[in-house]
Specification:
globular; single chain; 3-stranded antiparallel sheet; 30% strand
């Protein structure tokens, strides 16, 4: 599963993080950001990031995203796997 979280950054920019999440075993396998971009850049980024998914992406509440990502991290830790080092920036972006 892939997630992208975009937050306001100033009046005309967004701070964007993305994670590849394995909810069945490894937790967070890959993390990007936070990167600052415009809304136009975000709208160009989303189709590229979600291109492997036949139905694209769906918006979801931030609480659900937090639950899925941190739940996957906790489950992976129980199995002996830590999230990638790049996850620290994305974790803060999720509102920990």
């Amino acid at each position: 599963m892939s997630v992208v979280v975009a937050r306001k950054h100033g009046w005309d920019k967004l701070s964007v993080c993305a994670c590849l999440v394995d909810v069945y075993c490894l937790g967070v396998e890959h993390a990007l950001g936070p990167d600052v971009m415009s809304e136009v850049e975000l709208h160009r980024f989303l189709p590229k990031y979600f291109r492997i998914y036949p139905y694209g992406w769906r918006e979801a509440p931030l609480d659900l995203v937090r639950h899925l990502v941190f739940g996957a991290v906790d489950y992976a830790r129980d199995l002996g796997f830590e999230p990638v080092a790049d996850f620290a920036g994305a974790a803060g972006h999720l509102g920990v």
